[in-house]
Specification:
With 201 residues, the chain is α+β, with helices and mostly antiparallel strands. It has 9 helices and 8 strands. Helix 1 packs across helix 3. It starts with a helix and ends with a strand.
Length: 201
């Protein structure tokens, strides 16, 4: 293996270990990933990780490899992140909004105002103290979603944000279907948990 290939592999793996790699943010690292994709995948395979590349949307990330049936389970390197119910609800709404945007709009980026999104979220909660509690914590919930890498605030005022396309890969049809069932149950009974950890996405 040539020396520069080894440097490429190290650079790419380190960036991916830190989080999602976006082509527009790190074009040189992205180019290095494309150049050394085979060796990068081989390296990651040893530590039970797989490389997911979404070239058309311009992002890549690591995920735990699916274990073959009959083989003993290996420890997870990429830990599952427990999410609160409100955060899960917001992610589901953003995922649907992104799908609608891609269907009906020619704009490449989906940008949403915080006030607009707050109104959208509030319509999914029965009028109760719990709704007030959730809306009071809206800033914290959005910050959590930002920290997970699913949105990007456009400026310091944080009154608008861009929805990142990694959300389409993270939330698949099965996740939405499972969450729809939970949402229906929540609305029927008029109550729900606001504690971190009640949804394992």
């Amino acid at each position: 293996m040539e020396h520069h290939d080894s440097e490429d592999i190290s650079q790419v793996v380190i960036h991916l270990m830190r989080g999602i790699l976006y082509k527009e943010d790190k074009p040189k690292v992205w180019e290095a990933m494309e150049h050394a994709e085979g060796p990068v995948r081989d390296y990651l395979s040893v530590i039970n990780l797989d490389l997911a590349i979404y070239d058309s949307d311009g992002f890549a990330y690591l995920q735990s490899k699916e274990q073959e049936e009959g083989t003993p389970p290996l420890p997870r390197i990429m830990a599952r992140r427990p999410l609160s119910y409100p955060v899960s609800l917001m992610l589901a709404l953003l995922r649907r909004k992104l799908t609608e945007h891609d269907t009906y709009s020619s704009e490449p980026r989906l940008i949403i105002g915080v006030e607009e999104f707050t109104n959208m979220v509030s319509s999914f909660f029965p009028t109760s103290n719990n709704e007030v509690k959730v809306l009071k914590r809206m800033d914290a919930h959005l910050q959590r979603i930002h920290d997970l890498g699913f949105i990007r605030f456009l400026d310091a005022k944080k009154d608008k944000f861009e929805v990142k396309r990694i959300l389409k890969a993270y939330i698949d049809a099965q996740w939405l279907s499972d969450f729809d069932g939970k949402l229906e149950e929540y609305l029927t009974h008029g109550s729900g948990s606001d504690e971190e950890g009640d949804t394992d996405a």
